[in-house]
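Limitations
The structure tokens in this dataset are predictions for the assembled complex, not deposited experimental models. Users should treat interface geometry with appropriate caution, especially where small molecules or nucleic acid strands are included. An illustrative entry is reproduced here so readers can see what is and is not provided.
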Amino acid sequence: MKHHFIDRFAYERGFLQALSPIIKFITLIFFLFLLIILSPNLYFYFTISLILLILLFISKIPFFYFLKRIILITPFLAVIFFLSLLSHKNLSQFFLALIRSVLSLFGVILFLSTTKTEEFIKIFEKVPYGNLISLIFSFLYRYFYILEDELQKMKRSMISKGKKLDFKSYLILSGLLFLRSYERSERVLKAMISKGWNIERLK
Amino acid sequence: MEHRKVKIEVINLSFSYEEKKDVLKDINLRVFENERLSLIGENGSGKTTLLLCICGLLKFKGKVIIDGEDFKESLRRKIGFLFENPDDSLFMPRVYDDVAFGPKNFKIQGKLDEIVKSSLNKVGLKDFENRVPHHLSFGEKKKVSLASLLSYDPEIFLLDEPTLGLSPLARKEFIKLVKNLRGTVVIATHDIDFAIEISDRIIFLNKGKIKREYKENFNKDEIIKLFEENIT
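Predicted assembly:
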């Protein structure tokens, strides 16, 4: 099964792709920090959005790709929306959260999709306990797609045996996936130890 | 054969998982230097468990002696374990990182780039360094797994079902690679043809015990008959 990796646009020739990963990472952290600390200002948000859109365009990332990723935060926004209905500060809280989260995700998408994963992982090797962090990111990157494949296979197997996928089926699939992941993690750990891996060396 | 140096010695090895009693019972075994030994037997007969014990990846009763020394962490460098499912042993984002994993941990002398390149060349995967393991075919993944062992040059290879799941062509290529391995090779397999083709000795395991041992002039029919007898 083929997958589209998160760094699929990192191999394009664009503006952000040409920048150093560390510079991009520091800028991203600074940008997220600004979004949190600055008091709400529509002009500021508008300017930032415009800059991000220009960056998206000159980094050759399709707008539709960005939109699809933004949908990922919809469930979180729904929770914030219902919470804001209960709060005395009404919907202004919700709109602020909406703008901030969309802009934050915009920045993160721009960074991740224009930075090669191995370069992104290497950034963490330079900080304390960075080897451990980079190893965790490596695993996330490597095994996310394997688990996705396993889920698809189990789904197909259920469907082929005449099962309609309902909420209960997804609960069963999640449980099975958890068990399989747990078993796999034990095998992966054995493979790592057999190749001399030792957590003490990372510290 | 017995005059050759003993590379692996297993003495009174027993192992049991919590839920299943006695996976291995009192195993005594000697594997000689540069010998190719195959362990065959039904599912659950204890082949893989024995390999895991030899590699020190499971806690067991008894002794495993490698090169005359009781197993200890520093001896791990001498052993290369090829796992049945290559996705278990290829855990890094790029092929390069997977092949470099062992040499980095064991602090192997030499330029890492060259070690990785030469290991991949040995398995016929030139220029695969920057490939993503997830996008490789199953046969390619098996080869990268083997390259990730060759990169730290172990003296003992423990291969768990090396031909399982391979296409006929990939199987043929992989057998050729296994034949070219320099060192002691212990293989756990269901593939009787492969075991006969490659081994100096074949051991049949049944319910955690060594049932029979074959040396040279292997008779496939006799081995299959033994399988059939032990299923019933």
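Some entries come with short summary sentences. For this one: Residues 130-160 of chain A form the longest helix (31 residues).
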